[in-house]
Amino acid sequence: MAQIVVEDLRKRFVVAERRAGMLGALAGVVRRRHRVVEALAGVGFRVDEGELVGYIGPNGAGKSTTVKVLAGILVPDGGRCEVQGRVPWLERVEHVARIGVVFGQRTQLWWDLPVVESFELLREIYRVDRQQYRVRLDALVNALDVGAVLDVPVRQLSLGQRMRCDVVAALLHAPQLLFLDEPTIGLDAPAKLAVREFVRRLNRERGTTVILTTHDMDDIEALCSRVVVIDHGRISCDGSLDHLRERAGVGRRIIVDLERDEPLAPTDARVVSREGTRVVLAFDPVRTPAAALVARITREHAVRDLFVENPPIEEIVARLYGEADARGEAEPRPEPREDPS
Amino acid sequence: MRAYVAIFEARFRALLQYRAAALAGLATQVFWGLVRVMIFTAFYASSTGAQPMTLPEVITYVWLTQALLMMLPWRPDPDVEQLIRSGNVAYELVRPVDLHGLWLARAVAQRTAPVLLRCLPMVVLAYSVFGMAGPAGPLPALAFAVSLCATVALSAALTALLSVSTFFTLTGRGLHSLVIGVLNLMSGAIIPLPLLPEWIQPLVRVLPFRGLLDTPFRLYMGHLPPEAALQAVGHQLLWTVLLVLAGRWLLARALRRVVVQGG
Amino acid sequence: MLESLRVYGCYVAVALRGQLQYRGSVVMGALGNLMVTGVELFGLWALFDRFGQIQGWTLAEVALLYGMANVSLALAEIVGRGFRVFDQLVKSGDFDRLLLRPRGTAFQVAAQHFELARVGRLIQGLAVLVYALVAQGLLRPGAELVLVVGSIVGGACTFMGVFVLQATVAFFTIESLELFAIITYGGVETAQYPLSIYGDGLRRFFTWVVPLAFANFVPGVVVLGRPERFGPEWLAWASPLVGVGFFWVCLRVWRVGERYYRSTGS
């Protein structure tokens, strides 16, 4: 069943332009110049229950605008949007009681208070039954391993501890839909892994739908079965990671370590780089099956080692964005006024 | 001196930038002045006895207060306060400057920058519309001008002392609100000092705070004759010197503690 | 309604626990607040000491107005702190967080802060109020006392309403408007004296635009049995409702601001 339905979502912002210098500031007092920024230019997608979707795009592409609309904070100019059968901005209170939101950059916990007191207050705010709260809290605290810091004031927590507590806070009311905005930003490697593992289990075992916006492509690669790419306020790609790779046309890679320094340039593959005896080739697996290519190379050259891999997702995304840029207007892209995320 | 110029410029530019805030501030001061004038008018209308000041004098006093309110040393220099609270003041010791002198210069700049933008429009408005009288004559005007300069010095000395006091009251804004209370009452900001009860007058006369508003105002109105100017300004300057000395002494003590304890 | 009140209580408990970690600072703040408002009271006393009365009002009569106005403002300051620092919430973007919670935004803004330090004004205002009531022989169960207490609550609502309006401005412009201090602090300054001593413009403003007159002057005149009646007597007895009504209107305006914010996303 579709949990999120978005069709032709549109949003424009009017941004006041600042003029430089003292004179500009004075002139700005008299008359402000405005500029219209199209943050969403007809965005559409559906998300089914239990999906784990990565929502990515360059800064200012409309990512956080979309999330804000889905979360019920922002009212769009046009288009349709239904989340769990509700129009988010029309029934804000009912809507937000059933979603969870985690912003990696800011906490929703009370700064001066021990963590557990923030949880208690959230229990009251979200009208969670005391019995259910106990059960959920225990489970979440165990899963995220924050039992030791429950009585510590938030301001004394490390970033990783705080982040995990924020995840607990967002799930106390057991939402069926969770928005994660940069959940691993600034975390060290173990903390990142812990958060990822938890999100994966949440999605698998509880069937919670997760929308993940991030700049960390490792998050995407580790978690997301589906990736939606937004650019210039439009969806530029929507599908599985493999589909994304295909779309970007980056192809697959084969890395060859030769016995001796000799030229290697098969006709159906492109040389990406060459460093001493190591050659990196890119090829299109649809036209050229990997097995055939490998067989031919080993036949024609003395090969010490050889392996095939998918290109890093950063490269794919860079490709996609670059493509979109080339398609885009000649004018430099205006930065919409929204949180960079 | 460089610090002074820099602060003056920064303050001036900030005031210019927040023109809406400046206008709002002006409107607030005007409103306050009008209310207070009406209150005093009502008191005078229902009293027959002789008072130490006439109603027109009180009105002028009120408007001068509204115009020069920004001169009052209400709080420590926020930058210096921050410097002390963060402990970064230790780094200042490395520089070859006289710290208290620097803070004094900053305070002078802070108190004088708003004069042009906030006080002048206020005075013009009050004089032309709201019944504020001009100076009682050329001599009172001169005495007022001289006394006003002493006021700036006195106010700066108090500001610097307040800033230094931050060393000893790291947690509390409390002391500062205490100062605001005393300051408001004893400077004449709440009601003109001559209207306070007789029994408190000796205290008022001794304390430095009357030099912040009351002294220049009464010289302006001729309520204190120009002959008394020397003594009045002398009182202001004497207190300025005392407060500067107190500030330096306290700062030296505080810094010794900083150096010994390492912050 | 009752449930909201309970949740508000939870918020307050949390805020208090946070503030009490800095106990010294709170005590000093309250003392300072007491000092500042106390000095103003001393100024008022000094004027009566010199002039005896103001247009036929004695110190004991004016003290009733003074006490009512200050207790009202103190209550609004303690409860409404969130609205007074609201512009920061918008500037930092943290208002979005409130929109993500299943409660009214005005409720959350009010609940998020609770300013204990302002009990200074409360204590001082209560002391003056008790003095005035004792001096007038009004400190006994009766309709008059109910009217006084009701009007104080109504007055607190009026001040709260002004704080809400001030906060609403932050939805539209990030330049905070000092101008509202005229209405709140200028208002309390004005309302400390009988409204009848002021010019027409000021009187009308504080009666018809911001109905502070109903916080103390209108009911006060009736309670004190003074001749400066305003309108029919039942209106005086309805004073508390005026403040509540004003607060309600301000909350509607707040909603308009919130809708604007949610459509601009700034």
Describe this structure in words.
Chain A folds into two domains: 2-246, Rossmann fold (3-Layer(aba) Sandwich), CATH 3.40.50.300; 251-310. Chain A has eleven helices and 13 strands. Chain A has helices spanning 21-30, 63-71, 92-96, 115-125, 130-144, 159-171, 189-206, 217-223, 241-248, 290-300, 313-327, and strands at 2-17, 33-48, 52-56, 78-83, 99-103, 177-181, 209-213, 226-231, 234-239, 252-258, 270-275, 278-283, 303-309. In chain A, 38% of the residues are buried. Chain B is mainly alpha-helical and 263 residues long. Chain B has helices at 2-17, 19-45, 55-68, 78-85, 89-92, 99-128, 138-165, 174-187, 201-206, 214-221, 229-261. The model of chain B has no long low-confidence stretch (mean pLDDT 85). Chain C is mostly helical. Chain C has one domain. Chain C has helices at residues 2-20, 23-51, 59-84, 86-92, 95-99, 105-112, 119-135, 143-172, 180-191, 200-209, 217-224, 233-237, 239-264. In chain C, α8 (143-172) runs parallel beside α13. The longest helix of chain C is centred in the middle third of the chain and has 30 residues, at 143-172. Chain C starts with a helix and ends with a helix. The model of chain C has no long low-confidence stretch (mean pLDDT 90). Classes of the chains: A alpha/beta (341), B mainly alpha (263), C mainly alpha (266). Chains in contact: A-B, A-C, B-C. Chain B binds chain C through residues 18, 20-21, 24-25, 27-28, 31-32, 34-35, 38-39, 41-47, 51, 171-178, 180-182, 184-185, 190-191, 195-197, and chain C through 22, 24-25, 27-29, 31-33, 35-36, 38-40, 42-43, 46-47, 49-56, 175-179, 181-182, 186, 189-190, 193, 197-199, 202.
Quaternary state, please? heterotrimer
**N-to-C CA distance of chain B:** 28 Å
Task: Enumerate how many helices of chain A there are, as a single number.
Answer: 11
| Outline type of chain B | globular
User: Which pair has the most extensive contact?
Assistant: B-C, 39 and 41 residues
CATH class of the largest domain in chain A: Alpha Beta
How many individual β-strands of chain A? 13
Residue share in β-strands of chain A: 25-35%
CATH topology of the largest domain in chain A: Rossmann fold
- Total E-strand runs of chain B: 0
Helix content class of chain A:
25-40%
Encode the helix/strand succession of chain A as letters: EHEEHEHEHHHEHEHEEHEEEHEH
Question: Under the CATH scheme, which architecture of the largest domain in chain A would be assigned?
Answer: 3-Layer(aba) Sandwich
Mean pLDDT of chain A: 84
Beta-strand percentage of chain B? Answer: under 5%
Largest sheet geometry of chain A = 6 strands, mixed
Q: What is the count of DSSP helices of chain B, taking H or I runs of 4+ residues?
A: 11
